[in-house]
Predict the 3D structure of the following.
Amino acid sequence: MENLIMNIETVIDYIESHLDEKIDLEKVSEADQYSKYHLHSMFTNTVGMTIHDYVQRRQLTEAAKLLVFSSAFKSMYKVPPAQYRDKGNIYPLQLQFVLHKNITSKVFTKEEICMARTEDIPAWMDLMCLVIDGYPVIVIC
């Protein structure tokens, strides 16, 4: 019985690491070297659902997580992720907060500093509509 559970855990680990791919019974059976009929029976009897149902439910659950992320993204950046990606200008609204780090003072050379260009203005205005003092705000621009 313990060996069976370890075998099923191996199958589940394989499925979990390939959720972003098309997974079917044949692919899983080849990866874990079981006949697909034996694997199907073993998995269904242990887990209580077929591999197909398990994969579908797991993939839909991961998709639901992304939809929730999509809503959070839209509330912070004021546009859906696809529209933001299409704009091509990526401006992070929250970078990693560092409390303590050995910071050496960096002196910028004249060559490293450049002036903003006219074509940068729309992107900066979009950014300013989203952020005040480093925090997202709702502003109608």
